[in-house]
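User: Continuing from earlier, I have the next pair ready.

Assistant: Great, send them over.

User: Here they are, in order.

Assistant: Folding the first of the pair now:
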Amino acid sequence: MANDTYSVTAPSFTPAAGPGPVDHAADLHHRVEVALSDFVLTETAALLDVDHALEPLLAAARDAVLGGGKRVRPLFAYWGWRSVAGPDAPVQPVLPALAALELLHAFALVHDDVMDRSVTRRGRPTAHRALAAAHAGQRLRGDADRFGDAGAILVGDLCLVWADRLMGRAKVHSSALAGARAAYDRMRVEAIAGQFLDVLGDHARTWSPERALRTARLKTAGYTATWPLHYGAALAGATGTTFARGPLGRAYTRYGLAVGEAFQLRDDLLGLYGEPAVTGKPVGDDLGKPTMLLLLARAQASARQHAELDKLLAAEHPDVTRLGEVVRATGAAQRLSDMITERVADASAALADAPVDQPVRAALGELAAAVAWRAA
């Protein structure tokens, strides 16, 4: 069910036409796609030569990486790099490291889908469902779902190894690559910690809004915006505590936290009010989770609304349309929308005095709004 109040049209990810550096950003999505395609197809072909029985694994990996996506993490990393490297630096030497973030993202999504028992991702079967179907199609022995789960875990693991391999192909000084790896390692550790809290939330008897935000910061904010910005800056040579504690590092941390939280809060809204044809996932896919949207709804609900929420969420097949109506009536959807607006404003404020040139500031401002109000 769509709701126009909470489905604001997202600005373009590409800044307005301008000087040289904007030309890099304008075709960055294409460059990343080409880099990923060349790398993944070469890697999968080599593995297929080892044994053709690997084809289901490799097909799932190809789909996980090349099956679409917004590619925002390489874009955040690009602007982090560009802000330090300057407007005239060629992007091609760092492109492998930028594209590697999409392999890390594929790893996280494939494993997340197994944990959440998700059926679709980007409008097609998730890796574990595709592998379960391959099991059935080949009439293999044993349980198809267990085979699918095991295979998907390996798909995610493969993507994580690929991310390391592709990052290592960046043609930058070894000290810059080591600095970028420090940011990369931190984003991986935080994402894993956040994912565990996400899983724990599915089973905990109580969950606070504060912990929901902490989960979002770890699981989403760090590896979506904050650390890609630091990672990109490190690729240009800005590394260590001097950068992190300096004006640009502090601005990127504040900006990334705000944007990452807005990204996750928007996910909550799309999970209940998004269009499946656009999001690629069914509405209500996260109803078992203590999302900020549902936590706010419970906190703001009247006694009657609280009772109806409990009944709807306890149902084996919840009436998602009615649930959306009740949540909206509590004011939670509007409050969440307001929280997103507040974070976009905070992201802009973080950039206001940051030591970056105007094209970088403008691009990051547009990017914050785009991911915060995206439709998918």
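And the other member of the pair:
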Amino acid sequence: MELISAKRFRKKLQGVDVDLITLKNGSGMQMQVTNYGARVVSLLAPDEHGNLSDVVAGYDDLDAYVQDPYYLGAIIGRCANRIADGKFSLFGKSYQLTLNVGNDHVHGGIFGLHAKVWIMEQLSEREVLLSVGSPDGEEGYPGSVHFEARYLLREDNSVYISLTARSDQPTIVNMTHHSYFILSGFAPSSDTSQNILDHRLKVEADYFTPINGRLLPTGEIRPVAGSALDFRDFHAIGQRIDEKEEQIQFAGGYDHNFVLRDFNNRIIKAATVIEPTSGRQLEVFTNVPGLQLYTANKVSETSGKYGVRFGRYSAFCLETQHFPDAPNHPHFPMIVLMPEHIYRHEIIYRFSLLQDK
């Protein structure tokens, strides 16, 4: 399968040269990363016959990413997900963030990390380091913060992502990675009939944080048992995606945060997805307490790379994170970053074949 042309990404934006680099491991897996939004543009993984397919949604040129409303493949921050009314208080001081989706602040605002041109350094054939700064007051956040994202394509066909942040004053940080996956692969012959409804998902969570009609957490931590959000055992993603259950109706599918079982600040398994036709399996690991499942409910039919059109339910996101709107729910794990501390977030997306298990 041909890789995306790097020439279509080589422009200067925000005074920085944008580029597209390719990482490869010894097993033949390949990943392309651009420093616009620190985004994964393509990820080629083998199926049970050894054929490589691109398993993430994306575009084949930089201009499309600049116009992209869906955060495809991006690093998200300063704060992923939603903050109600864009308001929070920290040590007795109130802050007003940019409102970019209705009356709320979403995914870091208009000029969040997804819209910045990062400095990119390729460390080896399998590893790249990206860094970017955010000045005090940007999007309403306190503190000047330095962010780093490191992608490592491991020999076991896993993608290791390390996210770090340092601030010069107390602030809030909740980063994530926002690739849209389809394990059957995006191929030039595909069309909008492709979807992830037959993918089978298991989430290592007994509880989730319910949402209201604005997709904001209500503050409740509710058992998944007896609901359409019960993925404690494998279920097809599409099996209950049209349920009349209120939580599904609010989101138009899945757009929910799961409370990961056995969270202890160390790397734990968060989820597993299998796609029987290709034989691909994806396992997700992280050291943070939450996992957002999003099934592209709000994605309008869009022209992507290879001429493939994708839309609603065409891909899924598994975004490891702290809980949405955490500053406004004191019983949620806190996301305060102090100057003397370093924010550290680790993510592993490990690909394998069902016959390997």
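Worth noting for the second one:
The chain is about 5% helix and 40% strand. Residues 62-67 form the longest helix (6 residues).
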